[in-house]
Design a protein that fits this description.
about 110 residues; alpha+beta; 5-stranded mixed sheet; two-stranded antiparallel sheet; 3 helices; 7 strands
């Protein structure tokens, strides 16, 4: 049995949306969308097809596989390549796009 692909819309170079989830990011937003869809409870075996308008631009075999990848531009020849995704060490402390310091300042007040 084949799983129907998740249809994603590429809004811009930095923004992509699918299933009510929108991700904005400079580096590989489709792969970040895969991580966000899994966090939202979608089946990691689901394939993803990313469209810009009516044109299919990118097909991801499964959002689980896509979630494990990012794009690295730090290569010897300067060409971007897929690389294993590693979250920043303090990413769990980053809530609502604010760093831990900004959260503390907001909680304490000026």
């Amino acid at each position: 049995m084949s799983i129907a692909p998740v249809r994603a819309e590429i809004v811009s170079q930095t923004q992509v949306t699918a299933c009510g989830v929108t991700v904005t990011g400079r580096n590989a937003p489709v792969l970040a969308l895969c991580r966000a869809l899994i966090a939202a409870g979608h089946d990691s075996d689901s394939p993803l097809e990313a469209y810009r308008g009516a044109v299919l631009c990118l097909r991801v075999r499964s959002i689980g596989e896509g979630a494990k990848l990012t794009v690295s531009e730090a290569t010897n020849d300067g060409k971007p390549r897929f690389a294993p995704y590693r979250p920043f060490p303090d990413s769990e402390a980053n809530i609502g796009g604010r760093s831990r310091v900004a959260q503390t300042v907001a909680e304490v007040g000026p």
